[in-house]
Write a structure and sequence with these properties.
Protein name: Methylthioribose-1-phosphate isomerase
Structural class: alpha/beta
Catalytic activity: 5-(methylsulfanyl)-alpha-D-ribose 1-phosphate = 5-(methylsulfanyl)-D-ribulose 1-phosphate
Pfam families: IF-2B
Strand order of the largest sheet: 8-7-6-9-12-17-18
Number of domains: 2
Oligomer: single chain
InterPro entries: IF-2B-related (IPR000649), IF-M1Pi (IPR005251), IF_2B-like_C (IPR042529), Initiation_fac_2B_a/b/d (IPR011559), M1Pi_N (IPR027363), NagB/RpiA_transferase-like (IPR037171)
Number of helices: 12
Number of strands: 18
CATH superfamily of the largest domain: Translation initiation factor eif-2b, domain 2
Enzyme class: isomerase
């Protein structure tokens, strides 16, 4: 995607082939900082501390983590055992997003049977690059398959503004290109449709207000930042035509784990007969789990993410304590929206209902 006229991605391998570069998303929108990741520990820190976030991007970051493990493997350590151990550490970095384990295991499988060090390293880089390019292409296709849904609303409204509502950041910052939930929006805008996006602030880390608003603004798309609790009011008053969100893990039966607060948006959409779509590449499906509410692990993060808010003050980014200093807080990072509230999935292969039968129709090999 373009930022101020320059093509950029949220992650890339430096020309020295020894450093993974990432946009430090903790610093956006007020500071644009690129972080250097040179070891597996650096990768784990970036994932845990959310320099990088979003299921597809976490997966690609983990893939390059396996590459760095192969690059930095000590001479006195059994190569296979070392890579398996480092891959296990990478997969433990965050529990909810299924892409992390999927991507790390895919790179590991590509290199385990290669004995030559140089060839093993080439294979790891080749596989990590392939995952990045595939995820970018998947998101492009999500945009193409989601476009007709927006076009239909546009026609029904007499070619007037289509109002979409998003939650968290499921844009190119969370992926590689295009995004998941934002891919149809970018595609519609680039085709000339009049679209406007209601951007949930997405507490506690405000990924909507900080990241989605920044992305959309850079692309020239009309948007309005709203409090997380405003969505229901807007839906009641006919100000939302469609809700579209991403997901960090979805079961093949249709349950959706996404940023905390997604479930409440789905309930409001259902009550107001507004379509609620989830956009995801197939790498975000968990093909092992049936019951998302009971089986998907929900990450609990540092309560200080709830207690403090980050913002710009006289040119400097600062954190400010909001509640009383001695008040406890809880930081649940995700919730699960049951399949019955999901109108459909937008995937790289097309749109399907949030049912096992229809998901398997698109992905019969699974």
């Amino acid at each position: 995607m373009k930022v101020d006229g320059k093509d950029i991605r949220p992650i890339w391998l430096d020309e020295d082939l020894k450093t993974v570069k990432v946009i430090d998303q903790r610093r956006l929108p007020h500071e644009f900082v690129v972080a250097d990741l040179e070891t597996v520990d650096d990768i784990i820190t970036a994932i845990k501390e959310m320099y990088v976030r979003g299921a597809p991007l976490i997966g690609v970051t983990a893939a390059y983590g396996v590459y760095l493990a192969a690059l930095n493997a000590p001479d006195n350590y059994g190569e296979t055992d070392y890579l398996i151990k480092e891959c296990r550490r990478l997969k433990a970095a965050r529990p909810t997003a299924v892409n992390l384990a999927w991507a790390a295991d895919r790179v590991l499988s590509a290199v385990l049977n290669i004995e030559n060090d140089a060839e093993r390293l080439k294979a790891a880089r080749r596989e990590a690059d392939a995952i990045a390019e595939a995820e970018a292409e998947n998101c492009r296709n999500i945009g193409l398959h989601g476009l007709p849904l927006i076009e239909e609303i546009y026609r029904k409204k007499g070619n007037t503004t289509v109002n979409l509502l998003t939650h968290c950041n499921a844009g190119w910052l969370a992926c590689i290109e295009y995004g998941t939930a934002t891919a149809p929006i970018y595609t519609a805008f680039d085709k000339g449709l009049d679209v406007h996006v209601w951007v949930d602030e997405t507490r506690p880390l405000n990924q909507g207000a900080r990241l989605t608003a920044w992305e959309l603004g850079k692309h020239g798309i009309k948007h309005t930042v709203i409090t997380d609790n405003a969505g229901g009011h807007l839906m009641q008053h006919g100000m939302v035509d469609m809700v579209i969100v991403g997901t960090d893990r979805s079961t093949y039966t249709g349950d959706v784990a996404n940023k905390i607060g997604t479930y409440l948006k789905a309930l409001a959409a259902k009550d107001n007969n507004i379509p609620f779509y989830v956009a995801l590449p197939s790498s975000t499906f968990d093909w092992q789990l049936r019951d998302g509410i009971k089986q998907i692990p929900i990450e609990e993060r540092d309560p200080d993410e709830v207690r403090y808010v980050q913002g710009l003050n006289q040119g400097s980014t600062i954190s400010v304590l909001v509640p009383p200093a001695n008040s406890p807080a809880a930081d649940f990072a995700f919730d699960v929206t049951p399949a019955r509230l999901v109108t459909g999935f937008i995937t790289e292969r097309g749109v399907c209902k949030a049912t096992e039968q229809d998901v398997r129709r698109l992905f019969p090999e699974k």
